[in-house]
Amino acid sequence: MLRFQVTLNPLPLPLSGPGWALTAPELLTIVSSSSGNEAITPEFTVAPVSVQVRWCDIRVLRDAGFGRQYWTMMGGTGVTRAQPTPAASGWSVVGTVTAYAAAFVAFAYALVSLYWAVGGNGLISTVGGYVQHFAHRGGALPVLVALAATLAKVAGGLLALALVRPWGRVVSRGWLLIGSAGASVLLVVYGGLNVVAGALVLSGVIHPAGSVDRTALRWHVAVWDLWFLVWGILLALATVGYWRRTVRSSSA
Fold first, then answer.
1. Most buried residue, 15, 133, 179, 180, by CB count within 10 Å?
2. Cβ distance 79 to 24 under 8 Å?
């Protein structure tokens, strides 16, 4: 078996065209079915429809019975090389991890709302305000409110997963970025303002008029509103990771 080692000259830029693509420098090994021990190293450049040989011992190719068939094939089909896949960036990894974390936080919060929707009363006193009032009053309205909150939180979890799961591609990149960015801003602003305001009240910096349910306020600062804040931060990081991961493909 006759083996030819062909080294392509280094080229300044990647080449591309109908039916072929070439990045430089490349190393290509050609194997002929003819017997022999000759080896050649031709130098050539690649054009869209042909190969121009700069230097080559044509006699060796002729004796091998290989040259005409090979160069004809090269002229018809070209050299095909797949472009290397870029390595995942740090932001891509962060975006993926935080997307799954945001979905987990959202679904966990949805379970709490679902528990209250089906009639559970555990921890309802730690929420206080209108939620506790509706729960004690009973009727269809508290159930509907809790179910609406459950659906909204499930939708938020699915939004986070859409940033990293293949089925999320059914939504256009622009709309997905707008939705996830808008949701993360709302969550961060709502959760952050309530956490800060509650902490200021508990620390005595702010003295609101009227009575304050300090037990419920502590739960809001440490759990319920902080939950929204953490969820929003995770979703924001996932959104940035998605944007960084997809900006290259969208501009191509």
1. 180
2. no
Q: Which pTM does this prediction carry?
A: 0.64
| Cα 96 from Cα 47, distance rounded (Å) | 41
- pLDDT 10s per residue in the chain (252 long)? 444 444 444 444 344 444 334 444 434 434 334 444 444 444 444 444 333 444 444 454 455 454 444 444 444 444 444 444 444 468 889 999 999 999 999 999 999 999 999 988 899 989 988 778 777 777 888 889 999 999 999 999 999 999 999 999 999 999 999 999 999 999 999 999 999 999 999 999 998 888 889 999 999 999 999 999 999 999 999 999 999 988 866 555
C-alpha to C-alpha distance for 103 and 116, rounded to whole angstroms:
20
Length of the chain equals 252
